[in-house]
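Why does residue order matter? Because the sequence determines the fold. Keep that principle in mind as you read this record.
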Amino acid sequence: MRVLLIAVGGAAGTLLRYGFSVWLTAPGRPFPMPTLLANAIGCFVLSLIAGLTLKGLALSADVRLALSVGFCGGLTTYSSVNHEVLALVEEGRVPIALLYALVTVVVCGLMGVLGFFGGRGLMTLVQS
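Structure:
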């Protein structure tokens, strides 16, 4: 049953990431926004789950796996970031490639912090 839940979560995350690429891809953007958005949301959701559960939200192991390994695993993609950075370098857009890599690390890190402490704060409000 866990494998099925992870697969369903992964399918949902993958389809959302694909939806971002369909809806947000436009010529002339400085760097690949769909991947950045997918990774930022995935970092937020995964950290939110951690913040909520560490402060006492009771989620079954099955639900946690479906959301974290499944949904967030399907949504986020380091391999696409790597491919996009290398493609920008190949196009001779090295400064943009470096900026995209830096922005990805910073934004995803900040979204992780926001999700984690947001989840903890939300649980503190609920428990009081």
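Residues 18 and 34 are 8 Å apart (CA to CA).
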